[in-house]
Amino acid sequence: MNNILELVNVSKSYPAPDGVEPEMVLDSVSFSVMPGELIAVVGPSGSGKTTLLNIIGLLDEPTAGRVLFNGEDIFQFNDERQSRYRRDNIGIVFQEHNLLKQCTARENVLLGVLASGKIADVDRKRADELLAAVGLERYADYFPGQMSGGQCQRVALARAFMNTPSVILADEPTGSLDSKNAQMVIGLLCQLSSSHGTAIILVTHDMDIAGEMQRRIELKR
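Predicted structure:
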């Protein structure tokens, strides 16, 4: 099985005032990701974990190195291909659910489809199937303010899987949840990954959660 994603000597530094060395956030990071693989990214605060996810998701650009998706450098894509890459292949789950409060659970799950045009009946059916997969089928017409934080984060999981992405980038997805809801969210994330063949790259400070992934990548200093 071929790698779906490969980082080759990815570095990121930020400019500094004259006479001061640029701040190096990532220094020659290399690893590959197989389809359906579960990877935890760990390390102390400030070690570049979120920056790493942002680069893979095309929300930031490396200073050096390459990010290959199916063998092609995503930073060589034109704007249209980069937009398609983000839309079709990347799902994102944040620490906060970031649901739109004026939209129902179903409408929030369908947000990713809006970027590609009109919502069809098949899209609504898939959204309802994903809500059922995270145990929220009866909450499809509820608004975020009518649900708990754990339920909202489960809606966010469903939303991330809506376009059947190749990779989910999860940045501390349980950071705002209690331990019971955190375990439920991680269990659902792994379950959805298995059923959809989606790779997960998960940033966490929780070593118990990291231990539930298949592989751990540690960023130091």
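Summary: The chain has eight helices and nine strands.
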